[in-house]
Amino acid sequence: MPKHARTLLIGVALAILLYPAIAAGAGEGEPLDGGTRNPSINPALEYNRETEIIANNTTYGTRQSNKSNSGGGAIYGCRSLPGGTPANNEPCIRSNNLNTGLAFEMKTDGALGGTIVTKPGDASKPFTTNATGVATGLNADRVDGKHAADIVTDAVAASALLTPFAQVKADGGAVEVRSVDANGVSRSGEGNYDVRFTGDLTKCAVSATVTGAAPAFITATPVVAADKKTTTVDVRTFEPDGDAADRGFHVHAAC
Fold first, then answer.
1. Which residue range forms the structural domain that includes residue 249?
2. Among residues 237, 235, 117, which one has the least CA distance to residue 186?
3. pLDDT tens digits for 150-190?
């Protein structure tokens, strides 16, 4: 065999023998290369131990930044299963303060601090906490843009629609009304009253009761408008002998 051929074969053999060491040098214990993937795109060369960066200074152990207006200071990805640290499924990011100070801070000059995106649905939660104190700055007094007082007002209004009620004096004047139309109460004759409620009360039980100690009779007949936006209850009050007579009364509907 020519000398140059033997030299070539020896070189190839050395390359084969040294390749694992060279390949291993691309992973564990080697410096990081900027602008490329560390340690390699070859899964066989991926790190199999934690890469620790330990500092002892008065600022930060590491700093990552990007001056581009498109952002992108850092991204962390993982394939953790559910359960988190208690289930030995470490999250993609964990901030662990071994002292009593803050574990994290987030700041932006924009109007939106950030987003938390999970699988849609009522079973998904943006986060959980064991803290029970008031979170300063979180406006828990507002829901869907409404103040707590507005929510109470809406609830009262909804209740009024479910339980329409009116208290009427003998002369047709209203003492108290609930869910009654603007032209709610009128007296058209002796013992003859109209109480007009908002909405269709055809599926409600309408009843009336005479007020006062004097014996009397009362009837209540609901009549729904053609557009079903109002229901007029025709209330009639009578003396015990059957003659029409003005009497105060309550009228309500259970819906």
1. 164-254
2. 235
3. 777 666 655 555 678 899 999 998 777 776 665 689 999 99
